[in-house]
Amino acid sequence: MARILITSAIPYINGIKHLGNLVGSQLPADLYARYCRARGHEVMFLCATDEHGTPAELAAAKAGKPVADYCAEMHTVQADLARGFRLSFDHFGRSSSAQNHRLTQHFAGRLADAGLIKEVSEQQVYSHADGRFLPDRYIEGTCPNCGYDRARGDQCENCTKQLDPTDLIDPRSAISGSTDLEVRETKHLYLRQASMRGRLSDWIDTKTDWPILTTSIARKWLNDGEGLQDRGITRDLDWGIPVKRGDADWPGMEGKVFYVWFDAPIEYIAAAAEWAQAHGKPDADWERWWRTDKGADDVRYVQFMGKDNVPFHTLSFPATIMGSGEPWKLVDYVKSFNYLNYDGGQFSTSQGRGVFMDQALEVLPSDYWRWWLLSHAPESSDSEFTWENFQTSVNKDLADVLGNFVSRVTKFCRSKFGETVPAGGAHGPREDDLMNALRVRISNYQAHMDAMEIRKASSELRGIWVLGNEYLQDTAPWSVFKTDPDAAAVVTRLALNLIRLYAALSQPFIPDAAAEMADAMGSDATVWPDDLEAALSALSPGAAFRVPDVLFAKISDEAREDWQARFSGTRA
Ligand SMILES: [Zn+2]
């Protein structure tokens, strides 16, 4: 038994995520967590909402709510959706937690003690009417490049030119519209990442087993242009973690908060501390996952994320951890993903284009989405969701191959032998062939799951389902029954045991259907078939079963066309 720490990139608090976000981190992380638990490993699976920064403040202002209330509400919404998709987090935390405040301030203090933080004076826009500094997105004005009159302080939406707020002509506050602005000097803290470039580069060089996508992005940031840059870790905002040096005040930093990119990954650690508190456990219980001096030296730590998050996880967060000089756990494996596109274009949160997590669950149960998304995970390149492909995949893989097998076997048995596992007969060469084929495929399936090769694993799982259908087709118990009921009983008994086997193997991908299959067989879905012989004779003659509900309904052309039209844009 191994100990495996798994984190999914934490979703931003602002709004409901689309299926492209889901398949880029949380869903594959859940697949792996479920698989590791099923194999008997001790797992800690953590995620959280990322709650700080200007977008949260702006969204709260738009919703007419205090930002803390807005974040609390949206956290509940996201937690409910995670449950709806059966994401099996051990804890779904919040980056605004007291634990994250304390840890973020602690890390900043350690980094400062190690000489890895410097103060930089910057010119920033101050609004007298609003009584505050205005970060980039809070300033609007006319673009000096194209004349667009609603350019933002960081970029002109119209011509895409990158801007400094001081470049804007006739700048005004995006909060109040006030033009009573002044450029003032303000001080910020920078993490001296550039000085850690050698250490980070040496560390990345040891990660020869990481996906190319991960290491190539990390090396690009390390080496391109002038190489890894120092980064600001503070902001003039109200909402966030107040800048402190450990427990102590930080002279000159009064009224400032840490920048969201600095505190968000520290929430991975804080989420474990939140988990301990939520379950009334002592600190030692979470520290054994995170401190190599307190038991975490045998932990394997795996992170899941979209490719846009790779620089923060391979460079910035490791710089924070290494720079602290304390024995915190560094990541062992970074599984990163390309993008999922939507029906000839991109998912768009601002345009409401594509299927969002809440809408998906209104339309179909989560297993349908989990199966499609995981079996089409954008691993080696971007992939695309189309309704035609979704319909085909659901109807063939889930309804025709798996659902039909379960339905045929259980209904046939009920009609000929009743609702108990039939006795009689003994295994012959065809059963031996099936066992051998299953052994090979299950071994491949496990190897792909261990390696987090998700598409390959899904294809192997489908192959395992197909073996059952081929076996039924070859042995045709419905026709053999008339002349040789014992031969039909052998096939039926083995096929009922296959349903139980399929429940265990399929549970990481389609947990609800797996639970229904296992329950119908009077069994426990989490028993992994380490011993295939034993697994396929677990249901012995006389054991009761029931015919399960329809596992997967087919998607009609009409439904597909309706959904295609409904999700083409302009989310209500
Ligand atoms: Zn412009």
How are the SSEs placed, and which strands pair?
Blueprint: E1 3-8, H1 19-24, H2 26-38, E2 42-49, H3 54-63, H4 67-84, E3 91-94, H5 98-113, E4 117-127, E5 132-133, E6 139-142, E7 151-152, E8 169-173, E9 181-191, H6 197-205, H7 212-223, E10 231-232, E11 234-235, E12 244-245, E13 248-249, E14 257-258, H8 260-278, H9 283-290, E15 299-306, H10 310-324, E16 333-337, E17 340-342, H11 357-363, H12 366-375, E18 383-385, H13 387-417, H14 429-450, H15 454-475, H16 477-483, H17 485-506, H18 511-520, H19 532-535, H20 557-566
Parallel strand pairs: 1-2, 1-15, 2-3, 15-16, 17-18
Antiparallel strand pairs: 4-5, 4-9, 6-7, 6-8, 9-10, 11-14, 12-13
Helix pairs in contact: 3-4, 5-8, 5-10, 6-7, 7-10, 8-9, 8-10, 13-15, 13-17, 14-15, 15-17, 16-17, 17-18
Bound molecules: zinc ion (ZN).
Index terms:
alpha/beta; five-stranded parallel β-sheet; binds zinc ion
What does this structure look like?
The protein is an alpha/beta fold and 572 residues long. The strands form 6 sheets. It has a 5-stranded parallel sheet with strand order 3-2-1-15-16, with helices on both faces. It has a 4-stranded antiparallel sheet with strand order 5-4-9-10. 45% of the residues are buried. The model has no long low-confidence stretch (mean pLDDT 95). The protein contains 20 helices and 18 strands. 47% of the residues lie in helices and 14% in strands. The two termini are 48 Å apart. The chain binds zinc ion. Zinc ion (ZN) binds at residues 143, 145-146, 148, 151, 156, 158-159, 161.
